């Protein structure tokens, strides 16, 4: 239920249960977790794209295939695990939201570092519609991204938010016409895959910047600047600048 490809530094992970709008069952969770671990480990992977097969991105939990584990255990063992893997992966992760995202499918997109939406895609905080609560980080990401009152509006009413509204609210970076969507994703992914090693450290820093107090973030900046400056890519970047040419980064 998960497709995995690597090409020119771009790892594409495709949720692949299109008849259920790529809703999660246990097999898809396990495939997704395995794919994220492999992308983190493989030095040939410089950035990760997460997308969905067919007309949907991800409809959250498969409500017809919840399995027999207690719900709390499913959330902890699967959803919380892959949210943690996306955030701790030291490579940029791009959500290519090709179609509707609902419930934990929205959380998945919001946990990524960049979010592109096709014009016909939409986001639904579906949890309340079935009497549940936001999970997979929705209650962390939503108020940080759009503020308390908008987060409450979305979470309490569970209405469909169009791609255009999502962009106006700050829930995605860009909206792209459907016919140009794959090209726009490939363009951003290619730029990320040609970027320097420091992109992974930038991710760690901006993430900590959201969560931690200033003195701690200042210290982490000093620490990671030391690591970055010692990297082959920074040496190449500084050399290329003085030679007035484009740098050729290798991700090391
Ligand atoms: C689905 C689903 C789906 C199964 C569409 N499951 N079949 C964590 C842990 C444990 C428990 C609970 O939850 C969680 C976290 C969560 O994610 S809770 C939230 C779960 N997700 C939802 O409640 C979303 C339910 N789906 C919808 O509201 C709509 O399907 C959306 C808005 C996503 C799309 O609407 P439409 O574009 O109108 O498509 P559709 O409703 O016709 O769906 C197409 C097919 O996909 C349909 O099957 P069918 O056999 O009739 O073609 C749906 O039954 C199926 N499907 N979502 N989550």
Order of SSEs, N→C?
EEHEEHEEHEEHHEHEHHHH
Quaternary form: single chain
Q: What general form does the structure show?
A: globular
Name of the level-1 CATH class of the largest domain: Alpha Beta
Rg result: 19 Å
Number of strands: 10
Number of helices: 10
| CATH topology (fold) name of the largest domain | 2-enoyl-CoA Hydratase, Chain A, domain 1
What class, by secondary structure content?
Answer: alpha/beta
Roughly how many Å apart are the termini? 32 Å
Mean of pLDDT: 98
Residues in helix, %: 40-55%
Structural domains: how many: 2
Report on the architecture of this protein.
- 48% of the residues lie in helices and 17% in strands.
- The chain has a 6-stranded mixed beta sheet, sandwiched between helices. Strands 4-6-8-9 form a 4-stranded mixed beta sheet.
- The two termini are 32 Å apart.
- By secondary structure, the chain is of the alpha/beta class.
- The radius of gyration is 19 Å and the shape is globular.
- It folds into 2 domains: 192 residues, Alpha-Beta Complex (2-enoyl-CoA Hydratase, Chain A, domain 1), CATH 3.90.226; 45 residues.
- α4 packs across α5.
- The site of ligand LHQ has 24 residues, from α2 and β6.
- InterPro entries: ClpP/crotonase-like_dom_sf, Enoyl-CoA_hyd/isom_CS, Enoyl-CoA_hydra/iso, Enoyl-CoA_hydra_C.
- It comes from Symbiobacterium terraclitae.
């Amino acid at each position: 239920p998960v497709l995995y490809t690597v090409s020119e530094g771009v790892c594409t992970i495709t949720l692949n249960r299109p008849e259920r709008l790529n809703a999660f069952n246990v097999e898809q969770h396990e495939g997704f977790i395995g794919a994220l671990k492999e992308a983190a480990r493989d030095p040939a992977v410089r950035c990760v794209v997460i997308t969905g097969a067919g007309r949907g991105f991800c409809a959250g939990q498969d409500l017809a295939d919840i399995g027999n584990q207690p719900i709390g255990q499913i959330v902890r063992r699967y959803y919380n695990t892959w949210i943690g893997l996306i955030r701790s992966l030291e490579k940029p992760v791009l959500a290519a939201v090709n179609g509707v995202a609902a419930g934990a499918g929205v959380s998945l997109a919001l946990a990524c570092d960049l979010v592109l939406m096709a014009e016909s895609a939409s986001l639904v905080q579906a949890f309340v519609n079935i009497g549940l609560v936001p999970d997979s980080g929705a209650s962390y990401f939503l108020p940080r991204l759009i503020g308390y009152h908008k987060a409450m509006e979305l979470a309490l009413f569970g209405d469909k938010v169009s791609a255009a509204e999502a962009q106006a609210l700050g829930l995605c970076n860009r909206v792209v016409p459907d016919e140009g969507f794959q090209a726009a994703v490939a363009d951003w992914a290619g730029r990320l895959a040609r970027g320097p090693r420091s992109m992974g450290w930038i991710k760690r820093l901006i993430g900590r910047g959201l969560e931690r107090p200033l003195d701690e973030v200042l210290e982490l900046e000093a620490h990671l600047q030391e690591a970055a400056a010692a990297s082959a890519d920074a040496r190449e970047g500084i050399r290329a600048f003085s030679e007035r040419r484009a740098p050729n980064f290798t991700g090391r």
